[in-house]
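Moderator note: this is an archived Q&A kept for reference. The question asked for a predicted structure of one protein chain; the sequence and the answer are reproduced below.
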Amino acid sequence: MTMTQSRGRTSLPTPAELRRQIAHARVELGRIVDMLAAKADAAERPHGRTAAVTAQAARVAGRVRDTAVHVGRLVEDKTPTPVRAHLASARGAAGRSGTTARTRRTAWTGVAGAVAFALLARRSRRARRARLQK
């Protein structure tokens, strides 16, 4: 608030001055609000784009899944009966193997670790031999 000076004394601003200050403050606040709204809109824009891309990816994945099911049915319909019987038994065996692997997960993890260790040890031995022969 500015005060007017008259004859060395300070007095309160006149109503006209107050109106001018209020109008100026409103203009400034309007500018600030517009800047903040633009900033918020810019911050939200990537989120909207991400949601659109995610939705599009879900639609494409659904179409691919539907196409795969359709092609699988076509192949199954055109496959001769003896081959289908053999595939059914192979599917059953694969299902049993998967069940066995799930129930014996710790054992299979240990076997996988041992195989990985053996392969790495073999690789390092070969590398060491190659360095020694040079």
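Archived answer notes: Residues 13-78 form one domain.
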